[in-house]
Task: structure prediction
Amino acid sequence: MTSKNMNSFGPLPRPIAKKTLRGVNFICNAPQAQAVSLVGDFNGWNPAAHPMRQMPDRAWFLKVDLHHGHHRYAFLVDGTLTLDPRAQGITRNDNGERVSLVPVS
Amino acid sequence: MKQTEAGTPGNQREAAKSESAAVQNRKIHPVVIYPFKQPSDYFDLKALYELIARLDAEKDKYARPITVMDRKTHYAMERTKPFLDFRKNTVARHSDILDAWCVDTCQMWYSGLGMAFEKGGPEDVYWLIPGDFNYGTAVGQEVLGRLHDLPEIIVELQQDLCIGEIATDHNNSKQLIDTYGTFALLYNWFPAEAQEIRQFTERPRSEFLAVRRGFLGELLRQRWYAYEQTVVMLLQAVFSRKRISRFFVGNISDVPEGRESLASAMQQVERTERVLKTLWRERHESKAGWTEQYRVLETQSEQVLRTALIILQNLLG
Result:
């Protein structure tokens, strides 16, 4: 389906999308970890802001509502900043550490 | 005194105002590299130019797209009506065509990015779009839907260079060239920089990229190589500590016309070696005793090259 704000692919005018939030699933496969949290630009890289939940398969999971755009993030696995191997991109944060990148459209 | 004047609150306000205006007026410049070899049908190109048409329509965000077309392509097809129709009705309608005589694709990049640069403003972003991919397939459509992320990452995350990465299987010629050729040679000539590059991408020769104006300006002013320009861009980005990102744009394979034969794969590895060798010399020739180190690296490089060619011959021959 194609309309001004909906299209099967490609860039679109996003006056509405910019204001909306979209749920994004984060999964961290660290079965032996004691604690995992999600840190990123969206929570000021605060380890306490988004603790992740360990699921029955022992992977860590969290769904977070994010605004349209590109967000830098990483997992903090027992205090160690860890890249998401499933991420769509890689960049660096303001401290020069390699972090993951997620697009939200 | 100029310096004092620049520091006055009034002048600072003016500077902030003009910077803010530049940000407000920021444009993304799409530069399409038209396929050198004309495909047998226009299926993939039509899909690509549907995207270009949408970019052209979104004038507040995108500058008028540029299509770089090699004159050799034009003259090879000048009596072919479908080509002339497609050029006139689609390519020229949605983009400015830059007709240029080019020795290689990288010269098409240089011409196209250079032309876009001259039209751009201080906060602009330049987006390179290769034309010779299978955009008409389902996977290609998915890729077209992700390409716009590259310039947006530059804008939103204040990056200097964003490389689009495509997934291929281990035996794909591009993968083989990069594993046994490009990276092996990079580790010989620029080992520290090669490690940094590989932290970001497995595709140092990707043709999908976006670049911030400041960095593009630096690149355009430096020596431009006829080939393997992405490798050079990545090296320059690491040399000058630029902000690099990598973004996965999908699984895609080259259209058959552009797929590497063994001869083409060998040529690409040889070209990479030539470029790296020249770049190394340029960076070291002012240092005393550089020739000795150069000879050592050159001997090693020849060994790496020979090994790469044997592997490519075994797997692609």
Summary: Residues 70 and 103 of chain A are 4 Å apart (CA to CA). Chain A touches chain B through 18 residues (CB under 8 Å).
